[in-house]
Write a structure and sequence with these properties.
With 317 residues, the protein is α/β, with parallel strands linked by helices. The protein is 31% helix and 23% strand. It folds into two domains: 70 residues, Ubiquitin-like (UB roll) (Roll); 189 residues, no CATH class. It is built from eight helices and 13 strands. The strands form two sheets. A ten-stranded mixed sheet has the order 6-5-4-7-8-9-10-11-12-13. A three-stranded mixed sheet has the order 1-3-2. The C terminus is likely disordered.
């Protein structure tokens, strides 16, 4: 074999060099792909933020409005008119509706441009009295406002509730609790709501309101003007009902209220004609106790003997 042939074979075996793309080219291609993917998203975002179709309009709904007017709500939210609805944060909007008579404020976005504001007012259920102060409370036993800010309600027909007899000198805060977890700045001077005592007070008042509601199912119960908690505990609570007319006072126990109240309802005519008693005590299991004297400062509990009575009427067990 000749040398020339050998050289040709050797030349045929030499590797062929291929050119590689530079890193800058690859980087440019990657950036281009990213921009192509992001551009539509950015375009949609700009459209959502600037399109006039999303300019906010208010739809205000107030349920059972007596203390909160639509004008007040609109004045609080007037600065939102024309704002972009999709980008609007609802939490600061809700804080604008801080009002002592608003129980619940619901905010709902309805695209493209409507913000529905639904406001529910507190419904006054009773008056809580403690010493020389009084508060309007709702059906959950929580304070709405002090009486000095609602004189028209405090002079009306609301049932009064009190726990002073049960406290025996101890206090569960300065007034009824407002909302669980509310800070001192939002309690508006109506008492503590951050401690356990305030929650116990709210539950106790709610129990008294439930009793007032239950006894109104009976004819005599419609004359109840005040409910005082005599004692409260884990098992059961005792209540004093102050009524107009005679008997002026009815003592009841929570766990058998309806059964005893129905018995009293049946015997009401006979009881009122029987020496016209001042007090009727329904708390004992096997009897109804009548007394001609108003209850003293110390009232018998279930572990003590029944209060002295001039006449007794046996009730079915």
């Amino acid at each position: 074999m000749s040398r020339r042939a050998t050289r040709r074979r050797s030349g045929a075996r030499r590797p062929v060099r291929r050119s590689r793309a530079r890193p800058v080219v690859w980087l440019a291609i990657g950036v281009g792909k990213v921009l192509l993917g992001v551009a539509p998203v950015v375009g949609v975002g700009v459209w959502l933020a600037t399109a006039p179709v999303f300019d906010l309009e208010l739809d205000i709904q107030i349920e059972e409005a007596e203390r909160v007017s639509e004008q007040w709500v609109r004045s609080r939210l007037a600065r939102l008119e024309g704002r972009n609805l999709p980008l609007l944060s609802l939490e600061p909007v809700a804080r604008r509706l801080d009002h002592e008579w608003i129980r619940e404020a619901e905010l709902v976005k309805r695209l493209p441009n409507e913000l529905t504001v639904r406001v529910v007012e507190h419904q006054p259920a009773a008056l809580f009295t403690a010493g020389d102060r009084a508060w309007v409370i709702d059906r959950d036993g929580r304070a709405i406002v002090p009486c000095e800010r609602a004189p028209d309600l405090c002079g009306g027909d609301l049932v009064r509730v009190s726990i002073e007899s049960a406290l025996e000198g101890d206090r569960l805060g300065d007034g009824p609790a407002r909302n669980p977890g509310a800070g001192a700045e939002s309690s508006r001077g109506a008492g503590s709501s951050r401690d356990v005592q305030g929650e116990v007070l709210a539950r106790t008042l709610k129990g008294a309101l439930d009793v007032a509601t239950e006894v109104r199912a009976f004819e005599w119960g419609q004359r109840v003007q005040a409910v005082e908690v005599i004692s409260f505990g884990i098992v059961d609570d005792d209540y004093l009902l102050a009524c107009s007319g005679r008997p002026a006072t009815v003592l009841v126990r929570g766990n058998d209220l309806m059964a005893k109240a129905s018995v009293f309802d049946l015997l009401h005519g006979a009881i009122t004609e029987h020496n016209d008693p001042e007090v009727v005590d329904l708390r004992f299991r096997d009897r109804i106790v009548l007394s001609m004297e108003a209850p003293g400062a110390r009232i018998a509990t279930d572990t003590e003997a029944a209060p002295a009575a001039e006449d007794g009427v046996q009730a079915p067990s």
